[in-house]
Design a protein that fits this description.
The protein is α/β, with parallel strands linked by helices. The protein has two domains: 109 residues, Roll (Urease, subunit C, domain 1), CATH 2.30.40; 291 residues, Metal-dependent hydrolases (TIM Barrel), CATH 3.20.20. Bound molecules: zinc ion.
Length: 409
């Protein structure tokens, strides 16, 4: 794959058979004009080339140009567990126990080297923005020294309390990456600590991220205060005798704790009812689905059609290689299209690009529009490229393809 980091003095017209701007209809025989690290024009090649006579042309011929992809949820420090954890048929706790055991067996070098390999694949597959969660900061400097944009979430797990939320000292040398605390899940962080993490993020205008409504065990634990999660917390010495089960769903529980708003990103969101959907709508909470991970663990799949119809911002993550065999957003898109055939490929592509960038607050990314940053992919599709945009989009999601080139800032 070729790549070009754009500079201030660069002025290009980049042509391809198809341009997918994401927020506007596909353009046949299109071009993107780039100047001073910004997109200045998008349209038909014929028209743009007349206006920008001094720009250097680059022709990618039979290819598709689209924005770089967003993997909104992963745990790079678990990359070494690829193919070491077997898919489960719905026993969430056994999967969690297995991951904890195997993670402890990995050396620091192994964690770091596998995370590096994970990052390499993310770049090669066309990802430009990442939401990475870690319990350690092992992956942090890898991210900071990479061309990616995104968030690093320092994950807190503590149900018994006693966690001291100190000001995060790690500083970003550039504005590409943001760092903050996230909470693991409603069943693994005490209610007071959940509120403290939300308040930490609110004060610093950062996104609050938490896994939510992933398994039946989580629902049972919050609704009735019983089940395998209670046993698990006791085993780990994390059970708090003073905890009163809220008796409601995970979404309602977080809402009652006043944690849901447009700066909260909920990961998974599988087990929800009508009332939960209304809460999500009212609070404009952001959602990240990780379909292939859900299928791997067997916890059920999200009500994606309902979430999208409610007008919610839904983006895509892979989760870690402990519950997926790829960190590829292409694989996620393809699986989403298989499981939800009535969601259009155009809408799936928007989830994987524009919505992801929006959720993380990168407002001039995720689309090919004048004024936006040209973080773009040139993709070659092995299918014949005909002249119907919907067919090309379907091929882009489904068929064999290769990221041939990428532009980034
Ligand atoms: Zn996760």
């Amino acid at each position: 794959m070729g790549e070009l980091k754009l500079q201030h003095y660069h002025h290009y017209i980049i042509r391809a058979k198809w341009i997918f701007p994401v927020l506007s209809p596909p353009i046949l025989d299109g071009a993107v004009e780039i100047k001073n690290k910004k997109i200045v024009n998008v349209g038909k090649f014929k028209e743009i080339s007349k206006e920008a006579v001094f720009a250097k042309p680059i022709d990618f011929e039979e290819a598709v140009i689209l924005p770089a992809l967003v993997n909104a949820h992963t745990h790079l420090e678990l990359s070494g567990l690829r193919f070491r954890v077997s898919p489960s048929s719905g026993d969430f706790i056994s999967w969690v126990k297995n991951v904890i055991k195997l993670k402890q067996e990995m050396s620091l070098i192994e964690i770091r080297e596998s995370a590096k390999l994970g990052l390499y694949h993310l770049w090669k597959d066309g990802t430009g923005i990442i939401g990475d969660v870690g319990n350690t900061a092992i992956t942090f400097d890898l991210l900071y020294n990479s061309p990616f944009y995104g968030y690093f979430f320092q994950e807190v797990i503590s149900f018994k309390g006693g966690y001291n939320l100190k000001e995060i000292q790690l500083k970003a040398p550039s504005s590409n990456f943001r760092i903050t605390y996230s909470a693991h899940a409603p069943y693994s962080v005490s209610p007071l600590l959940l509120q403290a993490i939300k308040s930490y993020n609110k004060k610093r205008k950062k996104l609050f991220c938490i896994h939510c409504a992933e398994s039946y065990e989580e629902v049972k634990f919050l609704k009735k205060g019983e089940g395998p999660l209670l046993e698990f917390l006791k085993e780990r010495g994390q059970w708090d005798e003073n905890f009163i089960p809220p008796g409601v769903s995970p979404v309602k529980y977080l809402h009652n704790l006043k944690l849901l708003d447009e700066d909260t990103l909920l990961i998974h969101v599988i087990h929800i009812d009508e009332e939960d959907l209304e809460i999500l709508k009212k609070t404009r909470s952001k959602i990240c689905i990780c379909l292939r991970s859900n299928l791997f663990i067997g916890v059920g799949i999200p009500k994606l059609k309902e979430l999208l119809s409610a007008g919610l911002d839904v983006c895509i993550g892979t989760d870690s290689l402990a519950s997926n065999d790829h960190l590829s957003v292409w694989e996620e898109m393809k699986t989403i299209y298989t499981y939800y055939p009535d969601i259009s490929p155009g809408e799936i592509l928007k989830m994987a690009t524009f919505t992801g960038a929006k959720v993380f607050g990168f407002n001039k990314m995720g689309a090919i529009l004048a004024g936006y940053y040209p973080n773009m992919l040139v993709v070659e599709i092995r299918d014949y490229l005909n002249e119907r945009p919907e067919d090309v989009l379907r091929s882009l999601i489904n068929a064999g393809k290769e990221v041939k080139f990428r532009f980034y800032v």
